[in-house]
Amino acid sequence: MGQKNYRLYVRRFANNVNRRMKHTLYGSLVQKSRRTLSEEGAGTMMTKAILDVDDCAEGMRKFTTELFDTGVALLAYAGMLLFYDWRLALISMIFPPVSYVIAEKMKVIVQRTGAAYKEQSGALSSATLDRAANAVTYRVFGCEPERMAAYEENLSAYERSAVRANIWSASLPPIYRIISMAALVFILYFGGRNVLGQGWTAWDIAAFTTFISCFTRLAVKSSSAAKLFNAVHKAQVSWKRIRPLMYAPETPDTPETGVPAVLTVQGLGFAYPGNETLFSDVSFAARPGQIIGVTGPVACGKSSLGKVFLCEYPYRGSIRLGDKELAEMDERTRLGEIGYLGHDPELFNDTIEHNILMGDEGDAWEYLRMVCLDEEIREMPDGIETLVGNGGVRLSGGQAQRLALARTLCHKKPVLILDDPFSALDRNTERQIFENLRAYTTDAVVILISHRRYLFSELEQVIWLNEGRAVVGTYEEPPIKNKQGQEV
Ligand SMILES: Nc1ncnc2c1ncn2[C@@H]1O[C@H](COP(=O)(O)OP(=O)(O)OP(=O)(O)O)[C@@H](O)[C@H]1O
User: Entry's SMART domains (predicted)?
Assistant: First the structure.
């Protein structure tokens, strides 16, 4: 009973450790930049890291349980054997360590096949995510058979690596046990001689059977010790791999929102690392309540100008909020100053309400009204409790876009960067939301990036970007010309 409780507690403890480690892991993966995640392959990274956490927790559990079970029992059995016939005991006890040494040598193969299996398992997760996310595109463009073949290849590679890894990890323990048990041949021979009175010690049949029984238990126990070493070693290797990810996220969930201040941009220039300058010498100032338009031809750098405010890459010149330089703020302060809505609505698979409030208290309807989405949501059978699906797949493009805007407005910051928030909307809806936006952001600077300009005549300032140059003025000012002298 006590033994059962002990095991139960250890298992519970290991489960808690596993859960906490995964919590930390998700936290630290979420903190990684979008660049790192896409370079390393989010699916592969997640799968490998999760399997590593499982191995660590399992190694720890086995170590804690078996150390008590196996260690104490082994000592007791060894003592008994030595008591009955120390010479025969020493001969018999050579075999279990031999099986350890062999297990140690074979570990390389077990680990190599195990690592290959994890690698394939990660690749399969990425391929599955890719197929699920792009299924419609593949069907529409008729690439389904090729993608299917590529997926099948991944699946076969996964099966092969799983079989290989399992064969090694499942077939070796019985072999170790056979090696440990090989000592029985000696026990039968020398023990028989003891019973006949010709051996090292005088035994009766009871001593003989007790010796065999003790040795059998010792061999069985020592094979669990070999398994234990394997599990602990596996845990060590896994721990080494995930250790860099095992730090608690530094950024708290909800940074405090900064106070409204004048935004002053001076001589701003930007280039992606290793690329040519995208734009330079952008200067403007904006007071809370102003909406600044950013426009220009395709790929001129509009979105990049918006992302500069996220400080993912260094910029030239200066962006000041009040008297504070953006690049010099710590991450937490900056998150409290800058709100950002990119092209991708980045909705998560939860209810409409949760997608807006993101765990905060508040009335989500207020923001749904602001983005003219309230009536459509009211007509849905589950209303504000409707689950939007991964990435908002159960909503139309325009609904997803407005929902993302509602979320950004719900978490208003002194500077709001909105990258093409109206691209999927009709003109009337766009105008209505624009008016609501203006009324709601009297205490914030809004940077409105868009290639649709008919609302721009109502903006205080417009930044025209083209071929690396920027002109800051109003909508009425003549547009800048490109290198061929044509108007943009
Ligand atoms: N992460 C990046 N690394 C390197 N170059 C990039 C990166 N992101 C964008 N670019 C390049 O920067 C240029 C400007 O891209 P950006 O998305 O800012 O343009 P845009 O004006 O917003 O375009 P659109 O009107 O199509 O939305 C493009 O040539 C693009 O290829």
Answer: AAA (SM00382)
Answer yes or no: is the C-beta of 276 below 6 A from any ligand 1 atom: no
| 377 contacts 352 by C-beta, under 8 angstroms | yes
Domain's final residue, options 210, 245, 280: 245
- Exposure letters 252-271 (e unless 16+ CB within 10 A, then b): eeebeebebbebbbeebbbb
- DSSP tally for the chain: helices H, then strands E: 16, 10
Are 19 and 87 in a shared domain?
A: yes
What whole-number distance in Å separates Cα of residue 172 and Cα of residue 109?
Answer: 11
Report the nearest atom of ligand 1 relative to the CA of 301: 18
Cβ(223)–Cβ(97) below 8 Å: no
Range of the domain at 296: 263-473
Dist. CA 268 → ligand 1 center (Å): 17
What pLDDT sits at residue 36? Answer: 63
* Beta carbon of 307 within 6 Å of any ligand 1 atom: no
Q: Are residues 161 and 47 in the same domain?
A: yes
Strand 338-341's sheet: what is its strand order?
A: 338-341, 415-419, 445-449, 291-295, 461-466, 469-473
**Within this chain, do residues 237 and 354 fall inside the same structural domain, yes or no?**
no
Quick check: is 45 in a domain?
Answer: yes
pLDDT for 416 equals 96
From the CA of 301, how far away is ligand 1's center (Å)? Answer: 5
Interface predicted TM-score (ipTM) of this complex, two decimals: 0.96
> What token pair was written down for 112?
């190599």
Q: Is 302 in the pocket of ligand 1 (CB under 6 A)?
A: yes
Shared domain check, 440 and 320:
yes
Q: Ligand 1 in contact with 451 (CB < 6 A)?
A: yes
CATH code for position 134: 1.20.1560.10
If you take atom 12 of ligand 1, which residue's CA is the nearest one?
301
Residue 400 belongs to a domain: yes
User: What pLDDT is attached to residue 249?
Assistant: 55
Q: What is the pLDDT of residues 111-138, one digit of tens each?
A: 889 889 988 988 888 888 888 777 877 8
Tokens of 436: 């609501």
Q: Are 302 and 456 in contact (CB under 8 A)?
A: no
Ligand 1 in reach of 304 Cβ (< 6 A): yes
Three-point CA angle 162, 168, 171, nearest 5°? 120
Could you tell me if residue 107 is inside a domain?
Answer: yes
122 lines ligand 1 (CB under 6 A): no
Structural domain includes residue 484: no
Per-residue pLDDT averaged across 132-146, rounded?
Answer: 79
Q: Which residues of 275-284 are buried (b: 16+ CB within 10 A; e: fewer)?
A: eeebbebbeb
Give the total number of structural domains in the chain. Answer: 2
Q: Separation of 344 CA from ligand 1 center, angstroms?
A: 14
